[in-house]
Specification:
Layout (H helix, E strand, L loop, with lengths): L12 E6 L9 E2 L11 E7 L3 E4 L4 E4 L1 E3 L7 E4 L12 E6 L5 E4 L2 E3 L10 E6 L3 E4 L8 E4 L3 E4 L2 E2 L3 E4 L4 E4 L2 E2 L2 E4 L4 E4 L5 E4 L2 E3 L2 E7 L2 E2 L1 E4 L3 E2 L4 E8 L5 E7 L3 E2 L4 E3 L5 E6 L4 E6 L2 H7 L21 H7 L12 E8 L2 E11 L5 E2 L5 E5 L2 E8 L10 E3 L13 E7 L11 E8 L2
Amino acid sequence: MPAARRLPLPCRRLNISSSLWNGNASGIVLAADEQIADNSVITWTSGGYGGTLRLNGHTETIGGLNCTAAGLDPEIENRGYTDTANYPNATLIIHTTGSNTYSYNGGIRDMDAGTGSGYISLVKTGTGTQILSGGMSNTGTTMVTEGTLQMDCVSSATATTVASGATLKGKGGVLGTLAISTGGTLEPGDGVGTFSSGHTTLAGTYACEFDGSICDRIATTGSLDITGATLAITTLSPLLEASYVLATYTDTLTGTFATVTGLPASYSLQYDAANKQIVLIRGGYDSWAAAMGLTVGVNDGKMQDPYGDGVSNLMEYALGGNPLSAADNGVSTGNVQMVDGSPALVQTIAARAGAVFASGTDGSMEATIDGIIYRIEGSLGLDSWTDTISEITPITDGLPTLPAGYEYHTFRTGGPIASTASDFIRLNVSDAP
């Protein structure tokens, strides 16, 4: 094993190999700032001991880190084995150019069992991509100023920042704070995956992928601030689930997404403060309840009646009502109207837009939409509800304008009022299975 090198190294590709462990006389040890050519790609090629780049308190710019084989034990550190010296803090600048991608599965640490001071900070520059997938126990900061840094491991950096035009992605995370600047991008996974973080401020773009039954997720330990952020959704395959959790946090959520692109048809966002998560929900009861101001787990149950007016949340949802107001229970009104020149018993209801009613074998009319079953039934004497019901052109005279997403439907019983001794019509609303 050669002694540790302390010379300027103006090469474009630098290989490190070791088959025997030789303590602090292993690998490359810097004696000053910027000893290696900025475009040099450091590659670990063979061996299993002490393949080390030691910064010793200096700043170094390299063109990339390259090691993907198992068993090579590559390490980047500020101080060596049991070193007690107090070195200055070191900075490693990874400047990947063009569309180049380099992958490093080794460790980055402040020291190897020493007691002295001095940590390592990372800076990612250049338009290319650097993938880090080994242990990262260094406690300096991480800055992504250009290109892409892919973190497939968990970094101990005290703070991580992503500048405008740069991207942080991966299936790992950061233990410290995370700040994505306006114009910067956070992209969990390599494909669909989860990125974990400490307190997070996201002013840039959350690039979130959905694929069948799964989606990307930000898992924040602490507070999450998305004020002014953009949620950019990419759907890789048709969505199969009724809901998807795309972000969680353990403290508080500040703000909402200012811009949402790629939102799948019939889905909406729910900011679920009770469960500390942001959820994509298929259009229906849950999104309506959130929009109406109901609180998850408190008063949003379908059979609950938060205002105490005798009308359940499900019925309010079905008829376009307001569950927090006794003055607005939706629209369901029955009376006698002239139909085709004769008086008839009719019922007009508000229903979810797009509802299509069809005749049942028992004379009723029924429609299923957005998780609701509407059923209109008729009777001549209340002993059975098998009188024939038919749908007619909506009669809306004197009725209010409906909220968005609702439309009027009018139904009538089988015969003219004059030809029957009694006539009854009713609406049943139930939860679709």
